[in-house]
Amino acid sequence: MTDYTPQEAEQIRTEHINKTIIPLVNFAFENYPSIDSVLMLLAQFWCDEAIDAVHRYLVYFSADTPDLETLLENLESTEPLDPKLEKFLDESDDFTFRILDEYEKKYGKYLFLNWVENGVAIAGFAAYCEECDSDTSWKSWAPYAIFQRKENNEVEIKIVGEMRRPWLNGVKGGIFDDW
Fold first, then answer.
1. Could you name the domain of life of the organism this protein comes from (predicted)?
2. Per the domain annotation, does 164 fall within a domain?
3. How many domains does one find in the chain?
4. Are 82 and 90 in contact (CB under 8 A)?
5. Phi, psi (degrees; rounded to nearest 5) at 166
6. In angstroms, what CA-CA distances link 64 with 35, 93, 94, 95, 155?
7. Does residue 65 form part of some domain?
8. What is the 3 state secondary structure string of the chain?
9. Residue 178 lies in a domain
């Protein structure tokens, strides 16, 4: 099993952002005017069927939610996560599924089928994840990208993720090699 090159790993990240995340963020911005930014978090941990799966989580922000900087500071600190932020993160997952359902009803396709946690998600994103063993804490998650609403619902993308484990950039560690 040959690993991907760094350029191929970058292409995996870019294609995932462009084909899956941007359409979902655009849909959220168009249908929920109060949302002004979305944060993409990544984590690699044991979950059900694999020890190396890379997981993705989207967090939605508006004027009446905790601000992005506060959340990022809490995730980076060694202190326990503020309980209000933990509740906010838990609720964001429900919102993602609601948006996905609405998207599927409108367009007849389900966007997240393009994320294979045990496949190329490992090659593309594992290098940006913290070393951890399970999903027991939000502290396991690392920020990767911020999507902000601009004029006319255009999306500005800021890649904020740090390559924390460069030796994993492009590694084929999963059981599936395609989206």
1. Bacteria
2. yes
3. 1
4. no
5. -60, -25
6. 9, 17, 17, 15, 20
7. yes
8. CCCCCHHHHHHHHHHHHHHHHHHHHHHHHHHCCCEEEEEEEEEECCECCECCCEEEEEEEEECCCCCHHHHHHHHHCCCCCCHHHHHHHHHHHHHHHHHHHHHHHHHCCCHHHHCCCCCHHHHHHHHHCCCCCCCCCHHHCEEEEEEEECHHHCEEEEECCCCCCHHHCCCCCCCCCCC
9. no
Q: Which residues pair with 39 in a beta bridge?
A: 59, 146
- Please report whether residue 179 resides in a domain: no
Cα torsion angle, 5, 118, 73, 20, sign = positive
R_g of the chain, CA atoms, integer Å: 16
The boundaries of the domain holding residue 69 are: 6-168
Q: Between vectors from CA 23 to CA 44 and to CA 175, what angle results, nearest 5°? A: 35
Structure tokens that stand for 143 in this block: 């920020």
Angle at 42 between CA 37 and CA 46, to 5 degrees: 150
**pLDDT bucket at 55, cuts 50 / 70 / 90:** confident
pLDDT tens digits, residue range 72-99?
787 777 787 777 777 778 778 788 888 9
At 85, phi and psi to the nearest 5? -70, -40
What pTM was estimated for this model as a whole? 0.85
